[in-house]
Write a structure and sequence with these properties.
The complex is a heterodimer of chains A (299) and B (216).
Chain A: H1 3-20, H2 22-57, E1 61-65, H3 71-82, E2 87-93, H4 95-106, E3 124-129, H5 136-147, E4 152-156, H6 159-200, H7 203-211, H8 216-254, H9 258-261, H10 270-298
Antiparallel strand pairs in A: 1-3, 1-4, 2-3
Helix pairs in contact in A: 1-2, 1-8, 2-6, 2-8, 2-10, 6-10, 8-10
Chain B: E1 2-10, E2 16-25, E3 30-34, H1 41-48, E4 56-61, E5 64-65, H2 74-78, E6 81-84, H3 96-105, H4 111-124, H5 140-152, E7 158-162, H6 170-185, E8 189-194, H7 197-203, E9 206-211, E10 214-215
Parallel strand pairs in B: 3-8, 3-9, 6-7, 7-8
Antiparallel strand pairs in B: 1-2, 1-4, 4-5, 9-10
Helix pairs in contact in B: 3-4, 3-5, 4-5
The chains are: A alpha+beta (299), B alpha/beta (216).
The structure holds adenosine-5'-diphosphate and magnesium ion (MG).
Magnesium ion binds at residues 41-42, 86, 162 of chain B.
């Protein structure tokens, strides 16, 4: 296409956009709101995992050791573990220490343990994991690695909690992806209709343009650019609004309870931002295309 | 240049606007299509620029079977035909200049040339002063001249004009017909639809009488 014509199309798009006046702003408003709802879900999705990870962060890995292994073996095992990248601290707790700890936990009822013939508790290692970049997938990985050792009887890393969390977030993820897709489609339909409405007002102009020898593409191009423009502006505004909301939440949380302060609220990642912009641009163009389709094919 | 062969056009609800028309208009002819209101003049013209398709029969323009022209080729046909519509069909959101320039833009004319030729066309219809006006700021006669400027700007081989003198005084009418005569001298085939037989007689040229969709 000629540069000349492209320039004309862009100019046309801007003129049409301005001329539609209130209509343009109304559609941008509607599209922005729709996209904002969509982006809210994306923000929620982004942070769901973070919140779940927080719960797991309080867990450490307990590695129960077999009874008849030498002190030397334990020290070596401890060393290998502490050399693992994600591990921050390894504490060895002997049978005796374990029993003492257990008794302390029992408090007033500690007497019931006095009559034991032998110490039933195992030696174990308590592994603390580095807090940063810590997710339970890694926790699981470490635990599974340790389970392979023949010094180990059992590894406890809060499997039950982790498994439940796994299931919950997996389920939620699917629901959210579903909602996002539905919302995305709804967004597309709303945007198409909104932009289409603006074009309906130009039905007569379009008919005249065709009578004067304009091809369908000559009529389509400015409208597509206009749709793109509306989509882009709306997408940008939705993301801007989301950013403001995000900042607001972060500030609120920083003054809230200590527990909430730990929640690492993140903004939606670049992929989601591009996704929102892409959705808005695509629906803008599609809106123009589909509504023009009616005039261009049936007249 | 233009040929109708056994052409009939029946609109919805069975209105027979054209009935079995066969005629030929040669290249460079100056033709008045004369008939009362409702005789089928507008429909006759619409057949030529493929705004409607014949119900039966054929219409050929420059050898092309326009009645069966593929949709995507219609724009290219219309670029060969300058049309002055009865209701002008100006783009009401565009200035006079942009309305006239539009016919050049659709064929991708360079901007410098668009400017030059548009001014020239506006000069011919004596509307240079009003080039930045919008159509609603113009009188009926002025709007018509915008429509004419748009129709002639491409130097199309065919010019169609539907009731160009509808509500104009004699002097304006004369000016407008002279514009068409000038184009005709350059070799353009001109068809003017009018209900005014006196007008047609005044300027000479071929007169085609149409009544109830039939050529007399
Ligand atoms: N789009 C249309 N649909 C149905 N009937 C039409 C349409 N256009 C014209 N007609 C009818 O066709 C006949 C011829 O109309 P037209 O060609 O406009 O005549 P003229 O231009 O000579 O006044 C009239 O009876 C008119 O009512
Ligand atoms: Mg008519």
């Amino acid at each position: 296409m000629r540069f000349q014509t492209t320039k004309y199309f862009i100019k046309e798009a801007c003129i049409n956009f301005k001329r539609a006046g209130v209509m343009s702003y109304a559609s941008i408003g509607i599209i922005t709101v729709t996209l904002f709802v969509l982006s809210l879900f994306l923000l929620f999705t982004t942070n769901l995992k973070g919140v779940a990870d927080l719960v797991v962060k309080r867990t450490s890995i307990l590695v129960y050791l077999k009874d008849r292994i030498s002190q030397q073996q334990i020290i070596e095992f401890e060393k290998t573990i502490s050399e693992m990248e994600q591990v921050s601290e390894v504490v060895y707790i002997s049978k005796q220490d374990a029993l003492k700890k257990f008794k302390e936990n029992l408090g007033e009822n500690k007497d019931i343990l006095d009559n034991l013939p032998s110490n039933p508790l195992p030696n174990y290692l308590e592994i603390k994991v580095k807090r940063s970049n810590f997710v339970w997938e890694e926790l699981k990985k470490i635990a599974q690695e340790l389970e392979k050792s023949d010094l180990v009887t059992e590894v406890d890393y809060g499997q039950r909690v982790v498994n439940i969390l796994d299931k919950i977030t997996y389920g939620l993820m699917i629901i959210i992806i579903g909602i996002t897709i539905v919302l995305g489609l709804v967004t597309l339909i709303i945007i198409s209709n909104t932009i289409g409405l603006g074009l309906f007002a130009r039905e007569e102009e379009i008919a005249i343009m065709k009578l004067v020898g304009a091809t369908n593409w000559f009529i389509r191009c400015p409208a597509l650019i206009e749709g793109l423009l509306q989509g882009l502006i709306s997408g940008g505004m939705a993301i801007g609004l989301l950013w403001l909301l995000y900042k607001f939440i972060v500030v609120k949380l920083s003054t809230a309870d200590a527990l909430f302060q730990l929640i690492p609220i993140k903004f939606i990642p670049l992929e989601f931002i591009s996704g929102i912009l892409l959705t808005s641009i695509l629906s803008g163009c599609l809106g123009s295309f589909l509504s023009l389709h009616y005039f261009l094919k049936h007249k | 240049m233009i040929e109708f062969r056994y052409l009939s056009k029946v609109y919805d609800r069975g209105i027979r606007a054209l009935n079995n028309i066969t005629l030929k208009i040669e290249r460079g002819e100056f033709v008045f299509l004369v008939g009362l209101s409702g005789a089928g003049k507008t429909t006759f013209l619409r057949m030529i620029y493929a705004d409607e398709r014949p119900t039966s029969g054929f219409v050929y323009v420059a050898g092309k079977d326009v009645g069966n022209i593929p949709r995507r080729n219609i724009p290219y046909l219309r670029r060969q035909i300058g049309i002055v519509f009865q209701d002008f069909k100006l783009l009401y959101s565009k200035t006079v200049f942009e309305n006239v320039a539009f016919a050049l833009r659709v064929i991708g004319t360079k901007e410098a040339e668009v400017y030059k030729r548009t001014l020239k066309a506006l000069n011919i219809v004596e509307l240079t002063q009003k080039k930045s006006c919008f159509p609603y700021e113009l009188s009926g006669g002025e709007q018509q001249r915008v429509a004419i400027a748009r129709a002639i700007i491409n130097d199309p081989p065919i010019l169609l004009s539907d009731e160009p003198t509808g509500n104009l005084d004699a002097q304006l009418t004369n000016g407008i017909i002279n514009l068409f005569l000038n184009a005709n001298e350059q070799g353009t085939t001109v068809i003017i639809a009018t209900h005014d037989l006196e007008l047609a007689r005044r300027y000479g040229g071929r007169i085609i009488h149409i009544a109830n969709g039939e050529i007399l």
